[in-house]
Amino acid sequence: EAQVTQNPRYLITVTGKKLTVTCSQNMNHEYMSWYRQDPGLGLRQIYYSMNVEVTDKGDVPEGYKVSRKEKRNFPLILESPSPNQTSLYFCASRSQGNTQYFGPGTRLTVL
Amino acid sequence: KQEVTQIPAALSVPEGENLVLNCSFTDSAIYNLQWFRQDPGKGLTSLLLIQSSQREQTSGRLNASLDKSSGRSTLYIAASQPGDSATYLCAVGPNMDSNYQLIWGAGTKLIIKP
Hints:
The structure holds 2 protein chains of 2 kinds.
Chain A: E1 4-7, E2 10-13, E3 19-25, E4 31-38, E5 42-51, E6 54-57, E7 65-66, E8 76-78, E9 87-94, E10 100-102, E11 106-110
Parallel strand pairs in A: 2-11
Antiparallel strand pairs in A: 1-3, 3-8, 4-5, 4-9, 5-6, 7-8, 9-10, 9-11
Chain B: E1 4-5, E2 10-14, E3 19-25, E4 32-38, E5 44-51, E6 56-59, E7 62-67, E8 72-77, E9 86-93, E10 103-104, E11 108-113
């Protein structure tokens, strides 16, 4: 089954404790991205990757890092999480036909 | 700067009704427009993708239209069912020269009452 997976689905952590949210897709898509979704603000892009070893900032990259060492994986790293990063995070990949496929989301709470 | 608006933010209708969800955008120079469905606790599912050269797309009981000149898209749902209850989001793809960052509306939360 074609899918985008994220882990963990839920995470509660404390300020300053480094964390990584993993994202993996099995569709051999080149383009992947990370979004955060906050009430009333819609989805905002954090980072995107056009291909392996090619990443760039989206609209709200501050406080986040990503890497793309292999095509299927695109982890999101929070080196020092803060409460304003409490949000619902989505990973997505894009097909050649420009349809976006989303992971199930990761709900992160930073205390 | 492209802005995408969805009004209303929430909509409640009785089962069986036909309904229309609205999406408007400020810059008509778009590459495509997509409609997504989001269920609580789940990710987003792509429903329909309309290329800029197209006027509409249909999938089952769903029909999406696109009018670039007026900056509007509508999602028509025929014979609504309780299972259609979800949040519906539209997203505009600005152009292929960009990173293909989608610009999102905030969504319309739809409740279908049995």
